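Q: I'm writing up a methods section and want to include an example of the input and output format. Could you take the sequence below and give the corresponding predicted structure tokens, formatted cleanly so I can copy it straight into the document?
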Amino acid sequence: MRPFLACLIALFFASAHAQTVAEPVLSARAWLLMDAASGQVLAAHEADTRLEPASLTKVMTTYLVAEALAGKTLSPQQPVTISERAWRTQGSRSFIPVGGQVSVDDLFKGMVIQSGNDAAVALAEAIGGSEEAFAAMMNRTAQRLGLKDTRFLNASGYFEGPQPGHYSTARDLARLAAALLRDHPEAHRLHAVKEYTYAGIRQYNRNRLLWLDPSVDGLKTGHSEAAGFCLIATAQRSPRRLISVVLGAPSDEARARDSLNLLNWGFSAFEPVRLYAKGQEISRLKVYKGAENTVKAGFSQDFIVSVPRGMAGKLAARLDSRQPLLAPVQAGAVIGTLKLTLSDQPFGEYPVPALEDVPLAGWFGRLWDTLLLWFR
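A: Here is the clean output for your methods example:
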């Protein structure tokens, strides 16, 4: 199922709402606002410009740590010996002792809540054997998630000076945040914790929005001279969750203000429309050479899109099937495209998966359908 979901987040279609809802004016160099459930981009500026992400890099490190914990190649109480390289890492730190042993759980909290660069390096070494090998894992995962304009050189995003070879974009970072929310909600919940104490040192989460807006529950701040002030923020105001990415703001205050303005604008200017419920059959599509002649098409989660307020009645949908569709078909495989229009203008395109398996037919059924395809 996951490849389909990654594909859903990766797809972007320029929408008609850009003509009907004025986008906010922000101070950041680049920014983007995304509907987390559908991957729909509500507004963007310089969203595909490659920029240094600073500590936003740690969202990918968090994703890989969560993968390792889920796959049980790491355990929360597993001790990690702190290397000199991890201990010497500068910037924001968790103050872990060189040569000492620190649990994965403490390192994870130190990286997520305190933005500890030293904790990020220690976790990278525990998973990859070295930070360089872990960076290669980060880049492979970026490719798998469809992050086409992202390249990582280390686990923390910290460099002593500009490092143009380490980059991402507002669009890719929003997709990465959506993947973390989708695949590892337990890891995402850590980002809402406001403070963490390790070795008697209390440090506070740098995300100001956690104190300013109760609907905000993440996600990550970043700052360097080259990157400016950056923030990936996410807020849940039922039933919608939005993700904002702000890159290159001039100050800590500006990135918080820009992010909050962007989120507030998205929630107020758009309204959610649930087109299909989880598991709802949109259509039955013809299948050739299968044990069944048709397959149910639909979504594995409620399919909700954000529409400019007051325009829900002007939204229309059409399902295009990928024909000829040949068995075997696995549940979750993309078998069609849902095309949306708003006021008869293109609004979005989304891949539609199969809701069930359709195995191969017997030899006679396959032969018969082969003949049908010849004359199709």
